[in-house]
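Lab notebook, bench 4. We co-purified these components, and the gel suggests they stay together. Before we commit to crystallization screens, I want a quick structural picture of the whole thing.
Request: model the full complex, all chains together.
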Amino acid sequence: MKILVCISNVPDTTSKINFTENNTKFDTNGVQFVINPNDEFGLTRAMWFKEKQGATVHVASVGGPATEPTIRKALAIGADEAIRVNAEPLDGFFVAEQLAAVIKDGAYDLVIAGRESIDYNGGMVPGILATLLGMNFINTCISLEIDGDKATAVREIDGGKETLTTTLPLIIGGQKGLVAESDLKIPNMRGIMMARQKKLNVIEPVEANSNTEDVTFDKPAAKGSIKMVDPDNLDELIDLLHNEAKVI
Amino acid sequence: MSVLVYTESENGKFKKNASEVASYAYEVAQQMGTTATAVAINNGNTETIGDYGISKVLNITDDKLKTFNAQAYANVLKQAAEKEGAKVIILSSSTDAKYLAPMLTALLKGGYVPNVVAAPDSTSPFKVKRTVFSNKGFAHTEIKSDIKIIGVSNNSFGSVENKTTAQVEEFSPSLSDNLFGTTSVEIDKVVGKATIADADIVVSGGRGLKGPENWGMIEELAEVLGAATACSKPVSDLGWRPHGEHVGQTGKPVATNLYIAIGISGAIQHLAGVSASKVKVVINSDPEAPFFKAADYGVVGDAFEVVPQLIEKLKEFKAQST
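Here is the predicted assembly.
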């Protein structure tokens, strides 16, 4: 089985978000970048398929040279090879077109992407990819088992979960649950050393348009001050929620 | 040229979010000088959506669509859009809508913007406001393609009544077998209880509750309020509560009218996931908990004393108001 894990290079979850150049660009100043958390769960599941079922695991990312430390981290976690498409990710459709070219070229059986990246929260790359390539697709995937060319997956739905069966080739939009948080792999020294020897192929983008463009950004208005209620006077809280906030 | 909106159904009736997306579609149609058409699948009561400005319903009744299938549903919407010549398609932010939206986008080679929180800034050029960076920012995004697909954030635009008579037209899209590459074998869903996705109120517990055995009072408070229950990331990581209850940046997003956080300190990742909620109440014994800076109402106190009292007082309040 040949697996491709799609990796997005995103600001660490604790980052403060600011915008620059007249609020037209995300300010990367002082921001730490990491593997998108939803992708990291998928990468760890891919490592399981590698160890238990002899899968080959490649990772791919669309981004400039500055994203290479994040890609190297995926190699240090255990991916065999990496591909970087040398282009700024303009929008979800553009990224999906780039990854579609990578997948066609590499003849992957299983593509694991994250449900969404935590930067632009588009959540569209895996679904567009699947449709462009005519592959089966399961989103918000929280469990995945592969047996030959058959797959059994569980996806999160509003208020519960759904078990589905399908066949390879398959794309999933993964998230927490694919593996437990405690099973996430932290690269060890040996992994980091080995990652330096592994192939990181840089390829040029295919021609593709972006259909959307973020023109300007702004930040949520600062929160008004909080009203504190004495724990011995909870009637006041109920009164405020009923008469002032009008939510109960 | 009408604006198309996918109004989701469940058990033959519109889901709660249908009225919000219908209202949004009507608003966009008004701005563009056209009408709004809804697509309903296996729904026996479609005229009701006329209350929210919808003047036409494409009604699809097909046993093949009994269980949600993203690829098949995306193809239904594609055919509906082509039939109506619709250039703008409005979807909700339900898990199912977010599943099919990118597939529809690829089928129509359109531009898709999810997490939209307000009526369009303008329709020419077509520009919408959406959340980015997990609610830590907003982007004003222009859709440049001919086909525009918009995912409206839950509980952001609201339902706006506009009494209209909806003409119902039966529609039979063609559905080839190769659209059903995935098969649903089991659905495990809470019935008769509010879910995080559609509840007006969410009651959420954190590590401050000390253990899963103490969740009884969270559930009771939720029951009194008709609320859904949720939890913070550490609580789900510790296995105290199921993953499906985890709200925050890597969990489910919450956009309710009222979010009550009990024993949750308010890490930045948690706040990102819940900040779209309109009113936030924090109950925490630590007055320095960062959540107090992001909340509307706060109680500094021991949850094990405050919550049972709050339950009793809410019961009295509910008894009086009914």
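The longest helix of chain B spans residues 303-321. Worth comparing against the SEC data before the next meeting. The domain at 3-179 of chain B is CATH 3.40.50.620 (Rossmann fold).
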